[in-house]
Amino acid sequence: MGYNKIKISTEPYGYGSSSLIISKRLHKYFCLNEKFYNSLIYNSLWFADPHTYNDPFDCSLNYDFENTQEEIVEFAKSILKRERRDMDSKEFEEKINQIHTDHEYCREMIDFAQSELIKGVGCCCLSEIDDSLLMWAHYANSHQGACLTFDIEKDMECFNRPFAIEYYKKYPKVNFIKDRYFNGVRYSLATKSSEWEYEKEVRIIKDISTHRPPLRERIAFNKEALVEIKFGLRASHKEIEKTKKVLKDIGGYEHVKLFKAEKKIDEFGVYFVALNL
Description:
With 277 residues, the chain is α+β, with helices and mostly antiparallel strands. The protein is built from seven helices and 14 strands.
């Protein structure tokens, strides 16, 4: 394991192995807009509803249900027990009996569980690379934006649940009943088409169901964790100076290093030149 990698225990949230090795530094591409400046002002990251992603195949796996009727019934019962809320004992027993006799009702319970699987979950999408020309073009306003670099070891409270995206040409075979709960969340939120593999994406996942609007999706990070800000090839002098002023006015960012992307001479790519804060 290289000096720039970190091993994170993943047993509590459903990876098949007990640990995940990812880059210590993760990167977030931004347009230089209100969301970018708010991230600095409120030292926070936006954890979006996965249903809002631009890829219609994202978070929409096809689960199989190759299970015995007994397994289906037991799973439906577990859902009912978890969701009974204000249901009185008599009604609960009636529903349990219905599960045993009504196969269609069982399926309805499972469909409900599928829809609820990622409800209340917020995701922050980051990358293990900061020099992707495609991501600078797609996520940083055609190279006019910026990229925030975080040392996740400096804030394991904010970055405590990373999921490295796994890329496939075909849907992986996932049994919803046998791979439910956080393993199901992993498959839903951390599986994408291989066409996105260039992004080397890592997602941080949070339960935001108890957070209050309008700031429900905003999660604070330790300012020490933000270590670099890189500006794109086309980032304007005005926006760079505005960012510097925000950093100085807010305070606590004196350690952050600033860089500006420049074109490489002999290949398609960028390198970064240091700027004064």
